[in-house]
Amino acid sequence: MSDGLREPGKLKTSIVQVILTVLIILVVVAGVQFTMQSFRVKGESMEPSFYNGEYIIVNKLTYRFSSPKRGDVVVFRNPESPDELYIKRIVGLPGETVEIKGGEIYIDGHVLEERPVFAETLYGSYSVTVPDGKYFVIGDNRVATSGSHTFGPVPRQNIVGKLWISYWPPREWGLSPSYAAAVE
What is the pLDDT of residues 136-169, one digit of tens each? Predict the structure, then answer.
């Protein structure tokens, strides 16, 4: 028969196991928060790639080991309003001259070759040489977007991370669409 008493060694072991489990969970959660972050797309500026209300996960670690590339979709802090987070596609790299004219984007004088889905008309003219440490970004919905042509190139330190996956709604689930933009 049991008298309801526990052995002191078993109680210590149970407490240690609970503490270790909690510590492991905290380390995993902190690691995930350090490397990834979830965001909700707001607005139409990235359609048809990403729609208003879609949920995405951004990899915050990627750019610690490599530089952003043309075609990457990134979440960043607006240079004019750092509390605002935006999602856009990188089209211009540091040192390049980006021009918008005749509804097309030019990189160093060459037309940016894009998939037709992104080739909607851009209105007006704009030209800038992207400073070192900054990137020229623009939304995929060229008619309804703000981007570097409205608020200037984005400093690298403002980039939160590279879009990795879309996870909600389920019909939109998948890895980030990207394109290998080429200049002639």
Answer: 999 988 877 888 988 999 999 999 999 988 888 7
Q: Could you tell me if residue 23 is inside a domain? A: no
The set of catalytic residues is 45, 88
Could you give the CA distance from residue 12 to residue 78 in angstroms, rounded to a whole number? 52
Closest to 160 in 3D by CA, of 44, 14, 38: 38
- From residue 19, how far is each of 11, 16, 22, 28, 163 by CA, in Å? 12, 5, 5, 14, 35
pLDDT greater than 50 at residue 83: yes
Among candidate residues 45, 42, 40, the one with its CA nearest the CA of residue 56: 40
The answer to whether the CB of 86 falls within 8 A of the CB of 44 is no
Domain extent, residue 172, equals 38-183
Helix residue ranges, H only, the chain? 8-35, 62-65, 148-151
The yes-or-no verdict on residue 86 having pLDDT over 90 is yes
Is residue 12 situated within a structural domain? no
Q: Domain total for the chain? A: 1
Domain containing residue 65: CATH number: 2.10.109.10
- Higher pLDDT: 131 or 145? It is 131
**Pairwise CA distance, residues 107 & 89, whole Å:** 15
Q: 0.90 cut: is pTM over it?
A: no
Cβ contact 124:48 at 8 Å: no
Instruction: Report pLDDT for 175.
Output: 59
